[in-house]
Write a structure and sequence with these properties.
429 residues, nine-stranded mixed β-sheet, Sugar ABC transporter substrate-binding protein, Bact_solute-bd_prot1, D-Maltodextrin-Binding Protein, domain 2, SBP, signal
Length: 429
């Protein structure tokens, strides 16, 4: 297997040892030890995989030791250990869009380019283009996407019916429908979404793409001051400023926005599909029986939602167990395993599971159809693909807040683009 370099960010507070009662296998070829060390985050995907690890151990003779952390703890763990060049982590669950570029640039990842194509039955070609793009770096595959998200339009069927409206398919239709519903329903917003500077960037991204823009252009330069980007800022801001909740603050993240929608106080809401059960579960949502899902309304460039890998599996370049680590990843990401995990409500990155009726049987039909569209047309990132992701999100988010509060978002976009370019230049030194 080809294992070349490409190479950041956790304190260990919890570890779960699995399979300790099984007979230990003998050390593998090349001096590999009998225990594979897998680091995972707290997630439904992790819970399912942990329950099945004894099957992997029995099948392969490889003992698996799992360390599991919350997101912040995981970042601390990686920051301490990977920076120190540890060989005590073999398989690593990571966030491609948040720390993937940094890990790759620092050489923390083994190159999986040959591994992903060695087994035709495992079928790397089954993986969606957007997530694959985000788990690659400088022409090398550095991770296998395991969990995906797409942005979709949540809406109230009852409010649209009462207003005599069809589901908006364009941004202009969304603006008009939000305006009409707010005017006809006192106390109900036409539209709600994230407003906090950093948090809003991911959901704004689909507006940016649909207007024909992006955060960075093909030459690697900042591009949030283009006419397309400025139009996207203006539209997102207008929807919330003019048709959003009364006295809306600029510190709304998804829990607050979702609460407004599920309490029946908004007609439209753009958000990640992965949160849909918050809206459809009657124990949490007053509008569970009337929620619908549709693709992001089209802008001048069409309907282009993000289709991103929120989590992926990679192999530590310093691991002495790269062959066994790949066996684990291959097993955990097989078509059969991906299908089973998706049926439990965790969206996968394989196209085949979305085309399989059993793969979408647990999803609302209109949501499954919406996701199918997003996976085909989707863009593989929902934030700037940089090393300093938090700083970039703060910069890009500023024109969003200015637009929401009624300021000059064009001027804010110009200023933000200059600051963002400085960040890019600094990273490229």
């Amino acid at each position: 297997m080809k294992r070349s370099v490409i190479r950041t960010t956790g304190i260990v507070t919890a570890a779960l040892l699995l399979g300790s009662g099984l007979a230990a296998c003998s050390p593998g070829a090349g001096g590999e030890s009998e225990t594979l060390r897998v680091t995972l985050v707290n997630h439904v995907w992790t819970d399912i995989i942990k329950d099945k690890i004894p099957e992997f151990e029995k099948e392969t003779g490889i003992k698996v030791e799992v360390a599991q952390f919350g997101e912040d703890q995981l970042s601390d763990q990686y920051n301490v250990k990977l920076n120190a060049g540890t060989d005590e982590i073999d398989v690593m669950m990571y966030r491609p869009l948040q720390e993937g570029k940094l890990f790759a640039k620092n050489g923390y990842f083994a190159d999986l380019s040959d591994s992903v194509t060695e087994n035709a039955d495992w079928d790397w070609s089954d993986y969606q283009e957007g997530p694959v793009d985000s788990t690659s770096y400088d022409g090398q595959v550095v991770g296998v996407p395991i969990i995906t998200e797409q942005e979709v339009l949540y809406y109230r069927k009852d409010l649209l019916k009462a207003a005599g409206l069809e589901v908006p398919t364009t941004m202009d239709e969304l603006l008009a429908a939000a305006e009409q519903i707010k005017s006809e329903n006192p106390g109900v917003a036409g539209f709600v979404a994230r407003t906090a500077k950093s948090a809003a960037v991911t959901q704004f991204s689909s507006f940016l793409y649909s207007y024909g823009g992006d955060f960075i252009d093909e030459d690697g330069n900042a591009s949030i001051d283009t006419p397309e980007a400025k139009a996207a800022f203006a539209t997102y801001g207008k929807l919330i400023r003019d048709f959003g909740p009364e006295n809306v603050s600029t510190d709304v993240s998804w829990p607050e926005a979702m609460a407004i929608f599920t309490q029946g106080n908004a007609a439209f809401y753009t958000e990640a599909d992965s949160l849909y059960k918050n809206a459809t579960d009657p124990t949490n949502s007053k509008v569970s029986d009337t929620v619908g899902f549709a693709p992001i309304p089209a802008g001048p460039a069409g309907s282009k939602a993000y289709n991103v890998p929120s989590w992926a599996l990679g192999i530590n370049e310093a691991s002495p167990q790269q062959d066994n680590a790949w066996k684990f990843i291959e097993w955990a990401t097989s078509q059969e395993m991906t299908l089973e995990i998706q049926q439990a409500g965790v969206p996968g990155a394989r196209q085949s599971v979305w085309e399989d009726p059993s793969g979408v049987s647990t999803y609302p039909a209109d949501l499954a159809e919406t996701i199918a569209i997003a996976t085909k047309n989707g863009i593989g990132h929902d934030r700037p693909l940089v090393i300093k992701v938090p700083e970039a999100r703060e910069i890009v988010g500023d024109p969003i807040v200015v637009a929401i509060t009624g300021g000059d978002s064009d001027a804010a976009a110009d200023a933000a683009n200059k600051a963002f370019q400085e960040l890019l230049d600094d990273e490229n030194k």
